[in-house]
What does this fold into?
Amino acid sequence: MNIFVLVKRTFDTEEKIVVSGGKIQEDGAEFIINPYDEYAIEEAIQKRDALGGKVTVVTIGGEDAEKQLRTALAMGADEAVLINTEDDLDELDQYSSAYILSEYLKDKEADLILAGNVAIDGGSGQVGPRLADLLGINYVTTVTSLEIDGTNVKIVRDIEGDSEVLETSLPLLVTAQQGLNEPRYPSLPGIMKAKKKPLEELELDDLDIDEDDVEVKVETVEIYLPPQKAAGRVLEGDLSAQVKELVNLLHSEAKVI
Amino acid sequence: MMQTENLVFLEELREGVRAVCKRFDGAYWRKLDEIDGYPTDFVEAITQAGFLGALIPEQYGGSGLGILEASVILEEINRSGGNAGACHAQMYTMGTILRHGSLAQKERYLPKIADGSLRLQAFGVTEPNTGTDTTNLKTFAKREGDHYIVNGQKVFISRVEHSDLMILLVRTTPKDQCVKKSDGLSVLVVDLNEAVGNGLEVRPIKTMMNHATTELFIDNLKVPVENLIGEEGKGFRYILDGMNAERILIAAECIGDGRWFIERATKYAKERVVFDRPIGQNQGIQFPIAQAHIHLEAADLMRIKAAELYDRHQACGAEANMAKLLAADASWEAANVAIQTYGGFGFAAEYDIERKFKETRLYQVAPISTNLILSYVGEHILKLPKSY
It folds into this structure.
């Protein structure tokens, strides 16, 4: 099995987002592997251990993303590839990311490509399906179970709280939903072995991609934080007066009854 | 100066430990504190992830790292709000076997200690009437054929109920028959699964903090002669050999606690608003936190110096002892600052401060009392008259 996992470096879920000058401030923030991508990495490692083969983790980003790749290697991936666009591109969108990945993957003869269901930052969930489309292979999103027998694949996918069972075949791209597995953390031997595993760095030139080919199609108009939650209101008076006031507010202010 | 590559690795190591600890949050440790429970799940997780095998050579299934890396692992456990005291012995008690055991003993024990299938977490030295005055210990092992017959009593022996093996220091030659009082002591490996109920009685001691410590009553306990580590009579030296490593590792735990306290206190001081301003704006709150931070950073430098000397196989007794004292003082200062910053909430269990406060207090007393470090520095470094 030739397995590839698409990995994205994202803000730590515990990080407080600060917007300043129309941009999200990254200074001093902690970054992690997108949590949904961790399910993808774990599944790739399990499938490799069961069926043989190789797991390659791929990311697009800057030098900083090397750290997340090292973590994936420490978890047990065999090789890592950083497509470094730091010097070539100011921004990326779903279109350009999918295009770059497809140019990298088109001659790699991947049997299975895994990605997170969404990245917790952008949250579009588009790059996986777009990539599969560009590569001309099957794809299934939000999978919670993946069974591979030869080239036959049986999948359970999450459909808004319900499950759907599908059958398809390799080569295939799937995006991982929570519940697919319990991602391992890097072990100490894993961290030490990761130091010796190959981490290849590529630039757009290496993939024969022209900067014009990957001009973003999405324009960011504005970035702002959700409005702060207003403080609650405490009703006063005796119980019957409070109930009366509450019903009144639900009717006249909230307009729900 | 550390090389960049080493710094990157240490950072990866820290993150690796944090990733494990993240799954065992404040609520997990609080619950255990309430019931005096042992963190079995945590210890299993950190062992299976290989972190407690850091000091075991690669040929025996460990990672063959130095004391600096090992100390970083324990530091991060405490820094994450956990308590490395529950598992640190699994990391370093094996040192006695590694340094003085036979090849057969190393092959028998070390790989299983590295993978966690064998827990060597108990270290029986202290006795009710002989604390640091180790050479006066009374527990005696008499050789009879292929066995030692052991009789005596030990106290404050931690994690015995959560360990498969125990390193036991016993007297094998009566003191009055020895040239030096430090002669005649020997180290035995006791298989606890066989010993308990067959000459070994374990009684838990309830303590201020959740520490799983016990009292041992040893009555005609049979220990096979093949479980003797090294040579008979040289046990005291074997135990002393491990002391510098232990001092450095414990110093690192203190540093971890201290960092946890400072981070908590700083965050709270920024967020807690009283009289329309964050309390951290008041110098009465801010300065003690800053002071504790400074002392912690200084202690950390001594710990790193001691660890680097140790890893280069250079003499580090002074540095290891001083690091332990400085770090234990700094973590205690930070604990006090944190509880003062939190005010009444510092005493409420749900904020974790009181739990860590109790835990870090121990380091002033165990595994070595701060006073004994002062005696050591006075006598051995400054060449003052021996004070005890």
In short: Chain A is about 25% helix and 30% strand.
